[in-house]
Every structure is written in C-alpha cells, then in structure tokens.
Amino acid sequence: MVTGATSGFGKAIAKKYAKNGFPVIITGRRNERLNDLKKYLEEKYDAKVLSLNFDVRDKEAVFSAINSLPEEWKNITILVNNAGLALGATGIENGYISDWETMIDTNVKGTLFVSRAVIPTMIANKKGHIVNMGSTASKETYPGGNVYCASKHAVQAISDGMRQDLIKYGIKVTQICPGMAETEFSLVRYKGDKDKADNVYKGVKPLVAEDIAEIAFFITSVLPEHVEVRDIVVSCQQQASAFVVNRN
Ligand code: NDP
Ligand code: 8X3
What we know:
The structure is a single chain. By secondary structure, the chain is α/β, with parallel strands linked by helices. Helices cover 45% and strands 15% of the residues. A 4-stranded parallel beta sheet has the order 3-4-5-8, sandwiched between helices.
C-alpha cells in the first residue's frame, strides 16, 4: 500500500511494485488520477490494483477505508507512508499558520493515522515493513524550511519509535530521506508558481521519482529477510547538503 500515489514518488513506487508482480493499493485525494493509474497498471503489467480515495488528514476516512478493505486486500505487508508536502518557504515570522497546519496534519498526523490503521494486521501476521518518507529535511533545517523540516524531523522520530515498539512483532521500519527530487513537490510548495519551482532544479540533475522507487523496492523486497535498513539518505550527486549544491 502506498499513500500519495497520484504523483511523484508514490506513483513511481506503485509502478515498480506492480511491474514486479505485487498487488498494490494506491491512495490519494485526486480520484481521477487514481483511476488512470489503476487502469494503466492493470493494462501494462496485468497487475492487481485497488484504489482508495481519502485524505490522510481525515482520521475517520483513513480508518474507514482501511478497516473496510475486502478480505483479499486486508493483509498489507508493505506500507509506504509517502503522502506529504511542503507549503511555502517563508521565514517563520511571516509564515502562514494554515500552511503549518496542513504540513503537520499531512506529514505527521497522516503518517500516524495510516500506520495505526495498518499495524494491527501486520502484528497479527507477525510480518510487515513500514517505509516512511522522510527527507534530508529530517536531518537538517534551512532558512524558510522551518515547519516542513520540523514535520520531517517528526517523521524521523516516529520512524525510530515505531521500530523500537514493533521489533517484537517482526515488523521492519525504514525511513527514506531524499534530497531534492523533481516531482510536483516544488510546484505544490510554491503554490503553482512554475518559475519558482523550476528554479529549485536549475543547473542540477536532480533525483527523479524512479530513483526513490528503486530504493524502496530494494529495501523491502530484494534484501534478505533478516536485513533491515533503518534509515537511508540519498541525494543527487550535485547536492551534498541543503547549502552545498554544485550547480552547473
Ligand atoms: P508530489 O507533490 O509529486 O506528490 C505528493 C503526493 O502526496 C501526491 O500523490 C498527493 O496526492 C499526496 N498527498 C498530499 N497531501 C495529501 C493528503 N492530505 N492526503 C492524501 N494524499 C496526499 O511530491 P513528491 O512525490 O516529491 O512527495 C512525496 C513525499 O516525498 C512527500 O512526503 C515529500 O515530503 C517527500 N519528499 C520529497 C522530496 C522532493 O524533493 N520531491 C524530497 C524528500 C522528501 P493528492 O494530491 O492526490 O492527494
Ligand atoms: C524535500 C527536500 O530540500 O526541499 O524534502 O527540503 S527539501
């Protein structure tokens, strides 16, 4: 099950698993995109796909969707908590409180709600792997990153806490922390301003969604059962930190 499969990392992750014969549950708010992706995966890979249309911020919707999964879809073995966003890059003194709330509700509370709904099945099966999409923003802060970075620092703490709590059930927990990757992320962050979004990737060959899909798949489905990648930080070669970017 991958949340936020209508775009970017989530969409590429859904494709990677479907291509490799996994049944996939795709989720997101934009239902038309979910339907298009479901059709594409079924036609291209002959994949089994279930789409669930909910907002990860909506606690009732999350539990209702996951608790009412058809029997053959209930046993989720891999959960990728990917849905998330940054909104704005303004200093804390001018920050929009509604943007802060959206980021915290989506990145932090959304990850918690979906995990809490899925974990009981993993416990019952004594098997499971939760992959939380952190960021290099889980590790460092930068001017204007304030609340987004705080939300991803929280994803890191939640991932570590989950791993400690769930170890006794044989459940693995991984945080993936990508640096700059060209998806719809910056367009969302800059609220549709394409020039600002394009500027983020100027002079670099950034990560692309497929890079993250390769990593998620390798960690969950290629490595031997006893191996657990706790945390992985990945950037394009031209980025060494939020501040050190070797642009052409
Ligand atoms: P995109 O904007 O391309 O994709 C974001 C996905 O999240 C969409 O499918 C969107 O679906 C979903 N989403 C957002 N809000 C909600 C919500 N409230 N409920 C359900 N789904 C939601 O960005 P990315 O693919 O780049 O981002 C994916 C994750 O990776 C995020 O957590 C982001 O913070 C993280 N990340 C991104 C990096 C980058 O540089 N691109 C680097 C490091 C981490 P919909 O709108 O249809 O609901
Ligand atoms: C996305 C990477 O550098 O915009 O999480 O915080 S960054």
